[in-house]
Automatic annotation (TrEMBL):
Pfam families: Glyco_hydro_67C, Glyco_hydro_67M, Glyco_hydro_67N. It comes from the Bacteria. One of its GO terms (biological process) is glucuronoxylan catabolic process. Residues 441-665 form the Glycosyl hydrolase family 67 C-terminal domain. Its EC number is 3.2.1.131. Homodimer. Gene3D superfamilies: Alpha-glucuronidase, C-terminal domain (3.90.1330.10), Chitobiase/beta-hexosaminidase domain 2-like (3.30.379.10), Glycosidases (3.20.20.80). This is Xylan alpha-1,2-glucuronidase. It catalyses: Hydrolysis of (1->2)-alpha-D-(4-O-methyl)glucuronosyl links in the main chain of hardwood xylans. Signal peptide: none annotated. GO terms for molecular function: alpha-glucuronidase activity; xylan alpha-1,2-glucuronosidase activity. Residues 122-440 form the Glycosyl hydrolase family 67 catalytic domain. The keyword Hydrolase applies.
Length: 670
């Protein structure tokens, strides 16, 4: 049944007979030179794909007779100018006289190349004249599971954690294998199994056995396992009195722990650490800084080739004037002080995965410390698992932002892929939206966000449109009407959600702690930085957070001319207006509308756009199986209700501040 379990590896039967004949020419017989566990995976995937798409099991034959050859470069005659570009994970696909060759320096490269070929086949692309050279632009392409050992998942909306700790290590769930396949098919090569709000238990021998079992499953797919390290673990599971990073007994404890882990998992990736943030322990508890903490762990991992990913998501009520500034203030002065196997993991924006944020000012500001991106795939603030929001346009907007760190064209993407500052370590992390739901991600369309994350981690320059096109074809087929309609629907969906939730730079209006639905009126929490009111500050005089030089001066954390562009309400892009400015309700927008009218227009338009999505989806009924069509239809109906809820709640509340009448075009609250 079409329950979504197969993700974008659906391998639907190819019904067009000439296309089918074309693919039969290539998949009937193949030759694979490689016999390590990854080669076993390649053979299995080929058999699965060919039997499902073409109704055949490809037969293994000699190289001269084969129409498909999959072999590492030393077996073939590939010019050095090509092999030089492939690195350890890249591949070259070429076609010559009826033979397609996939080659790479490593078997992982072959696996990636095979998946590329299968993607083209699912997309109905001809294979006869291929010449594709691909290599990833970042080294670590990693999922962050915010999964707890009791199988709950922080900010997970698709069931429970897929890690069945209770039955590990003895029982290997088929899901682990399908998870690895899905990740490898889009180039994801690493995973953090546990929540950044970490539980030290995972570092005890009993759990490490289980982690080892997962690492063994993932290895042939090129995926390395990482764990979160709770900074106070030496106290909690080590019986020490302190976790001070400069205390010798603490250093020794972590060194021994690293030794123990690597004796079981020789390719263990390293640690992801959330320290001194939201109550998590860290080096500052001992009067030390982030570099002291990160370097201590890095030194423990270094002999084994491991990496520390230290998160820059820090804020506390000690800096109450503007939470958006704290990460920059704490980390920028430490640039250059981190050891070479440390990366700093920075969220895309300075607050917290809001529907839309300007890029984080740390990007470009730490030339001597490799920064990696942290995107959220799970839709904590974006309708969770009931709303259709394709996130690639949001990722793209951030990656294509120009930091001006080294003049024009210093994009965030060029920071992340390492080219701007010549970083030796590069990476992109995505907070996973994966759970035990049959379709993995709760909302069937949310699979596209997992897919898009992987594709952008591989190449941060890809565009959201191309990624959507690939995903739709693999997931729903190549029918033109289907591809065009879903593509349009997906590509508008993020802007639509921003419109009915937090237009014009508004942010953090969500209900406290669950973050679902509007609650801009909440103004009395114990901490200002958790209080929606703090972020919009609306009163009779106007609305917005003044982050200019007369306000919190967060704009000064950006390079010129970005700083001055954001600082001046006339040049600040309207999409970020109320992020940086507190403005009167009646001030004029570029359209000639007043701010109040523009706000109303956005909320109203967001609702109208959801209705358009419903209408578009309806048209696809004849083209899509009942199960998936019905499920997305029901979810869109909920989304419409929720968009109305956002509009009504926010506009009624803001009206209580502005005292202005509803603009004409606006449906008054029901
Ligand atoms: O987005 C916020 C979430 C927390 C999360 C935190 C973080 C894991 O509300 O649930 O904790 O960010 O990123 O550390």
């Amino acid at each position: 049944s079409e329950n979504g379990y197969d993700l974008w590896l659906r391998y639907a039967p190819i019904t067009d007979s000439s296309l089918k004949d074309h693919y039969l020419d290539y998949f009937t017989s193949f030759h694979c030179i490689a016999d390590d566990p990854t080669a076993v995976v390649i053979r299995k995937e080929l058999a699965l794909a060919a039997s499902s798409m073409l109704g055949i099991i490809p037969n293994e034959t000699s190289r001269s007779k084969a129409s498909l050859v999959i072999a590492t470069v030393e077996n073939l005659d590939i010019p050095a100018n090509i092999t030089n570009q492939l690195g350890t994970e890249g591949y070259y696909i070429s076609a010559n006289r009826g033979q397609v060759t996939v080659t790479a320096n490593t078997s992982i490269g072959l696996l990636y190349g095979t998946y590329h070929l299968l993607r083209l086949t699912q997309m109905g692309e001809p294979l006869g004249s291929l010449s594709i050279i691909e290599a990833p632009k970042t080294k670590i392409r990693i999922l962050n599971h915010w999964d707890n050992l009791d199988r709950s998942s922080e900010r997970g909306y698709a069931g429970f954690s897929i890690w069945d700790w209770h039955r590990l290590p003895g029982y290997i769930d088929q899901r682990y294998i399908d998870y690895a396949r899905a990740n490898a098919s889009i180039g994801i090569n690493a995973t953090v199994l546990t929540n950044v709000n970490a539980n030290a238990q995972v570092l005890t021998p009993m759990y490490l056995e289980k982690v080892k079992a997962l690492a063994d499953v993932f290895r042939p797919y090129g995926i390395r396992v990482y764990l979160t390290a709770r900074f106070s673990a030496p106290i909690e599971i080590g019986g020490l009195k302190t976790a001070d990073p400069l205390a010798p007994e603490v250093q020794t404890w972590w060194q021994k722990k690293a030794e123990e882990i690597y004796s079981m998992i020789p390719d263990f990736g390293g640690f992801l650490v959330k320290a001194n943030s939201e109550g998590q322990p860290g080096p500052q508890n001992y009067g030390r800084n982030h570099a002291d903490g990160a370097n201590m762990l890095a030194d423990a991992l270094r002999p084994f080739g491991g990496t520390v990913m230290w998160r820059a998501f820090v804020y506390s009520d000690e800096e109450p004037d503007d939470r958006a500034k704290q990460a920059y203030n704490e980390f920028k002065p430490l640039d250059g002080q981190f050891h070479e196997n440390v990366m700093i993991q920075v969220k895309n924006g300075p607050i917290d995965f809001q529907p839309r944020e300007p890029f984080h000012p740390l990007f470009g500001a730490m030339p001597n410390t490799p920064l990696m991106m942290e995107f959220q795939i799970t839709q904590e603030y974006l309708g969770q698992a009931t709303q259709l929001v394709y996130l690639a346009p949001m990722y793209e907007e951030c990656l294509q932002s120009d930091t001006y760190a080294k003049g024009e064209s210093s994009t965030v993407a060029s920071v992340i892929d390492g080219t701007l500052h010549d970083y030796q370590l590069t990476g992109m992390a995505g907070v996973a939206n994966i759970g035990t739901d049959i379709n993995w991600t709760g909302h069937p369309m949310a699979q596209s966000n997992w897919y898009a994350f992987g594709r952008l981690a591989w190449n941060p320059q890809l565009d959201a449109q191309q990624i959507a096109d690939e995903w739709i074809r693999a997931t729903f087929g190549n029918e033109r009407k289907v591809v065009e309609t879903i593509s349009e629907l997906m590509l508008n969906s993020w802007e639509t959600a921003v419109s009915y939730m937090t237009p014009l730079g508004l942010h953090h209006l969500m209900g406290t702690s669950h973050h679902y639905g509007p609650a801009p009126w909440v103004d009395n929490l114990s901490r200002a930085d958790w209080t929606p009111y703090y972020y919009h500050k609306s009163n009779q005089g106007g609305i917005g957070f003044d982050r200019t030089s007369t306000g919190s001066n967060a704009t000064s954390q950006y390079f010129p001319p970005v700083a001055s562009t954001f600082n001046d309400p006339d040049s600040c892009p309207e999409k970020f207006l109320l992020w940086f400015h507190h403005l009167p309700w009646t001030c004029k927008m570029k359209s000639g509308k007043t701010l109040w009218e523009a706000l109303a227009y956005h909320y109203q338009n967001g609702v109208a756009e959801v209705r358009r999505m419903q209408a578009q989806w309806k048209q696809l009924k004849p083209y899509i199986d009942h199960e998936r069509h019905q499920s997305v239809s029901m979810l869109l109906d909920i989304q419409e209700q929720e968009a109305i809820w956002w509009k009504d709640a926010c506009m009624s509340y803001f009206q209580s501040k502005s005292g202005l009448p509803y603009p004409e075009a606006m449906e008054a609250p029901q």
